[in-house]
Amino acid sequence: MFRCRLLGAGLLLATAIGIAHAHADPFNGTRAVPADAGSIFLMPDGLVTRLAHIQMQLNDVISREFRSVHNTGSVVAVLTILALAFLYGVVHAAVPGHGKTIVGSYFVANRARWRSGMFMGGLISVLKGVTAIAIVFLMSLVLHLKELETANQGAVIGCVSYSLVVVIGCVVFWRAATGRGCEHNHQPSVLQGGRGATEPHNHRDANLQRILIAVTGVVPCSSAIIIMLFALANNVMAVGIAAVAAQSLGMAVTVSAVGMAGIVARPVLVRVTQGSGHHLERAERTVRLLGAVAMVGFAGLLMLGALSRI
Amino acid sequence: MIMAVFLIARPVPAHAHPHIFIKHNVAALFDQSGLTGFRLTWRFDPMYSSMMRADFVGSKTGPLTAVDVKALHDKSFVDLKDVHYFTSVIFNGKPLSLGVPTDFSATSVDGSIVYNFVVPLKPDPHDMRPENTVTITVFDPSYYVYYELAADHPVATVGGAKLDAACTAKVVWRDSIGWGRVHSDVVTCTFRSPG
User: Fold this and answer.
1) How far apart are CA B29 and CA B58, in angstroms?
2) The model's pTM
3) Which residues in chain A touch residue B145, judged by CB atoms under 8 angstroms apart?
4) Calpha distance B85→B83 (Å, rounded)
């Protein structure tokens, strides 16, 4: 049960540091200057402006509907909130920090059925929602932290969590490099297509998947915390929880899509690698190593990004 | 391979994706001596406003009191000098440093906190020309705060009629920290030198 202890220790650490620190938000009175440290992923020109504009509009409408629920108890307003929160989740998860790249590169590194991609993306997103709700309960309602500090707990937890993902990526790399725990040629070839591909037959791979889901999912989405706090401010906690659930489902759509893209990309990458004269087994191993390195790289960048916000 | 991953990556935004959305207005202020500064109005999104209210304001609803405004100013607004109020001004092609903001007020409008303040400017008389151009951008390159010009009266001039002052807004491409090129509003004002 070493992994459980490791995971438990990591989460405890994240929570402890999370309580100790407030995040550097330019308006929350922490007097911190946004640093330029770390790095993040290439975004297509102008995409983030469009996403931000859509989010701003959704933010306006959702908050208006929340006030309407508060004032009139309108069911239509509740349904509108849920639908918009779902949409918000889809859009919001498209920007970095929601586990997409980690899930995507994991599935490049590890052979899996498309269901696993959907499952992992979905579970991570749902967990993120659960963590957000738990943080609001703990930080705001129990510990009575300032709301702006509560909203920024994600940075600290993210830093610890992404460090653990770096470790997991290293484990995947080490296993690929040493040939442990990876699928060998006694399995149906991945080139036979999706149906030929197998679930991780190795228990360690399945365990690794579970740990990865827990570690990535425990990083809360700040937007979910903000929505939850807003619901509390309007005395409609139940609607807030439902809205966070809807938002998580929306994020699940986006993150799962990237997970499945990783699953689809894997055989293509193997074929390309094999095309340059490698044996199938070596091509598989190369792609596995590539996926592991991408995982470590992405998680490392996310960790640096989170670190600069603490 | 690790290098490759870092090569496709870019310097990181200090914060993740935008979490604060601000609709803003820009008014260029003039007196007989020329440009004196800009009056900026920032309208925070309702969700962030709610959190600001919870942390800095005594009441949950209703108008802000003088004590609330002072709390917002002292505990939140003053720290923005570290990020130069996300504002940059270029006068006749040269960057112009901002003075300490004056005339700060905060109100609560329809669930949104609205900041209103003046950024004083003192262009060097040597840089004055018969026809002057000043541009002002309110932009957070880390994209933690997303600024967008308000739909209603986004730009204005005050007291500049004698100098034929006029301001226009346009959208330009701008490099962000880690988010690729993004759109940003830029307000350009022109005015004649007095006398």
Assistant:
1) 33
2) 0.76
3) 26
4) 5
Chain A: residue nearest B54 by CA?
A147
User: Phi/psi at A295 (nearest 5 deg)?
Assistant: -60, -50
Cβ contact (<8 Å) for A308 and B14? yes
Question: How is domain B16-192 classified at the CATH fold level?
Answer: Acetylcholine Binding Protein; Chain: A, (2.70.170)
Residue numbers of chain B with a pLDDT score lower than 50: 1-16
Within 8 A of A31 by CB-CB distance, chain B residues are 79, 82
C-beta atoms of B15 and A24 within 8 A? yes
Weakest mean pLDDT among A25-34, A67-76, A279-288, B140-149: A25-34
DSSP character string of B127-151: G--SEEEEEEEE--TT-SEEEEE-S
First to last CA, chain B: 65
DSSP-assigned letters across all residues of B84-130: GGGEEEEETTEEE-----EEEEEEEETTEEEEEEEEE----GGG--S
Cβ within 8 Å, pair B183-A28: no
Give me the amino acid identity at A86.
Answer: F
Q: Centre a 10 Å sphere on the Cβ of residue B62 and count the other Cβ atoms it contains.
A: 10
Q: What is the pLDDT of residue B138?
A: 95
Q: Which ipTM score applies to this complex?
A: 0.79
Query: Which chain B residue has the Cα nearest residue A44?
Result: B180
Q: Do A26 and B143 touch (CB under 8 A)?
A: no
Taking the CA of residue B80 and the nearest CA in chain A, the distance in Å comes to 6
Question: Minimal Cα distance from B51: which residue of A?
Answer: A147
Q: Does the distance separating the beta carbons of A301 and B9 come in below 8 Å?
A: yes
Question: Residues A201, A202, A208, CA angle at the centre, nearest 5°?
Answer: 120
Q: Which of A25, A27, A173 to mutate to test the interface with B (most CBs of B within 10 A)?
A: A27
CA distance A233 to B53: 10
Count of other CB atoms within 10 angstroms of residue B181:
17
The tokens of B45 are what?
A: 């999104």
Residue with tokens 């827990």: A214
Annotated domain spans of chain B? 16-192
